Amino acid sequence: MPTIVEAINIKKTYMLGKVPVEALRGVNLKVEAGDFISILGPSGSGKSTMLNLIGALDKPTSGTLFIDGVDISKLNDNHLSELRLKIGFVFQFFNLIPRLTAKANVELAMSIANMGKAERSKRAVELLETVGLKERINHKPAELSGGQQQRVAIARALANNPKFLLLDEPTGNVDSKTAHEVMALIHKLNRESGVSIIMVTHDQKLAHEATRTVQMFDGEIHSDLVN
Amino acid sequence: MKTYDVLGYSFSAIKLRKLRAGLTTLGVIIGIMAIVALLSITQGLQATITDQLNQGLSANSLIVVAGGGGTNQNGGGFGGGGIGGGADSSGFSLYVNYTSEIESLSSNITGALAIIQRSGYVESENLNRSVTIYGVDYDAYSHAYGTFSAATGTIPTNPQDNVVVIGSRVSDPSQNGSQFIVPGNGVSLLWLNASVLPPVNETYTAQVSGVLEAIGGFGIGGPSDTGVYIPISKAESFFGTDQCDMIIVTLANSDKDTIANVTKLITDHFGGQVSVISADAVQALLTSVFSTIQLFLGGIAAISLLVAGIGIMNIMIVSLIERTREIGILKALGMKSRTVLAIFLGESVIIGLIGAIVGIIGGWGLANLTASVLGSGFFGGGGGGGSFAITPLLTPEVLLGALGFGVGVSVIFALYPAWRASKLKPVDALRYE
Q1: Cross-chain CB nearest to B334 (options A91, A97, A113)
Q2: B161, B231 contact by CB (below 8 A)
Q3: What's the gap in Å between the CA of B409 and the closest CA on chain A?
Q4: Which one, out of A53, A226, B221, B262, has a CA that is 20 to 30 A from the CA of B207?
Q5: Residue in B18, B333, B422, B433 to test binding to A, most A beta-carbons within 10 Å
Q6: What is the mean pLDDT of chain B?
């Protein structure tokens, strides 16, 4: 299986005012295509920093981070943006554009990737059908429940055929029943469509739904276990 | 991201806050409206005045007045004794018999005629109004100005002393067809002779021979709708002088060289104590005056557009702050910084474009409204200065300039907020609450 993410001794130091804060203290991680891994850790463990780096939203202070075979520390702003087209983000707070309908939100991701109108319209409908929102495509986020919004976000994340889905507390903002549905969808995508999943969470139970759990603590990987 | 997608996204952002976008656009509309209205009225006014001057000041005639204020070539023709001044401060005067001297100066001069003019009154059974009384040679005057022709009655070639020709507004002051004085009527002409003490009213009774065609406008030297024309010989005795106010010189052609040569010949002949005015010089002066007026008015209007620009900047900074998280999402989805820049600039282009188009239409409407108000009351009926309707003029330069300026100002003031938006770091923007 090809490697989609490889971190080699990555460190990340933030300046909190004038005080340097070491968020990551030398992390090594390898994720292969088709994996479903969860990065588990309490608040302050460095998992959010890890998420930002794997999502190509930020660069490590030192060390090497390959995403889809590219060392991101060598990329400029423009190339990082291009790389992000290959990553499907799903955020805890959905982060849909409120003024756009479900379909337009999904289409937006494809228009950023320069896809033509007709093609992306067709694909947006298909994706929303996949996540079970066929009847709600013309609804705006405010007219959708939390679970439905998260499913729109998943459809949007899948829009540009990403190398992997990067989930940030995907069920953190929905009720337990909906959380179960969302996780079922994620499992289905991983098992049936072979979509690689990297999920960041502080929820132990949720983390163990993945096939592999990486536990972080104080900016380091504490354990890396197959469930 | 494709251009139409960028513009579509910009438009969706504008649509979301209609009132705010509307008010921002209103600023641009008002600025462009002011510019277009002021410039199109000024340009219309210039065109009207130029047009009317052309009627009153034929291209192949020169006007000689006393006073060495300058020659026509540098636009100083109005200097010195000025138009209509019988004598300049140095005591130099033009006399009726100078016409023959001038005629002999150059073969390019086809004629010269003297004009004596005084303010006075015309009285008939039905009407009593103030007019300007001109003493002219009917024959020469009608050769110099095609507009000196009779609508009713005749203009005799060798008039009796008691003959008078009147302008159309003297006969029909309201220009509605009701003629108070018609050919054949007797009228009393009167002027106040203040050169003797105590001043005395000089008067005589004349017979109206002809009424001129309506001319419109105003002229320097040329026939006027409010003029009363008596033979030059009668004028000399009636006004008690053989000093004339101006001499009209007609030329064989209207070449610039001819005008320059003849002007120099005449000026030199009178030792620099006369001013020679040509249509060219008056137009050059007018153009220069109107350019200054346009620059001034356009400048004032442009300030209001700059204020609108600051409004755009302000509102876009607010919008940028409100949309920080949205920008973070767009960047996380792979949008490039320059596309974020384009989205914000796109919003300003849309605002500028709508503002400019509506502003141009509104400005044009305002100009026409103003012109019709001015035309109906202000200049039209009053003063007896002849009809004076302004037709606003929207030149392609003003149209495109206004469009470009509206969009340009919007974009320039949006540059800073757009640049700030594009520079937002996705990590920080996504964290923004």
Answers
A1: A113
A2: yes
A3: 28
A4: B221
A5: B333
A6: 85
Query: Higher model confidence: residue A92 or residue A29?
Result: A29
Helix (H) or strand (E) holding B318: helix B279-322
Q: Which of B240-249, B302-311, B376-385 has the lowest mean pLDDT?
A: B376-385
Stated length of chain A:
227
| Strand A87-90 versus strand A164-168 pairing type | parallel
Q: Per-residue pLDDT tens for B129-177?
A: 889 999 999 998 988 888 888 999 999 988 888 899 999 888 888 877 7
As beta bridge partners, residue B249 has: B62, B112
What are the residues facing B228 on neighbouring strands?
Answer: B133, B166
Give the span between the Cα atoms of A58 and A67, in whole angstroms.
12
Residue with tokens 């380091």: A220
Q: Which residues in chain B touch residue A112, judged by CB atoms under 8 angstroms apart?
A: 1, 330, 333-335, 339
Give the number of other Cβ atoms within 10 Å of residue B175's Cβ: 16
Residue A30 parent element (H or E): strand A19-32
H/E stretch holding B132: strand B128-136
Interface of B to A at Cβ within 8 Å reads: 1-2, 5, 9, 12-13, 15-16, 325-326, 328-339, 425-427, 430
- How far is B352 from chain A, CA to nearest CA, in Å? 23
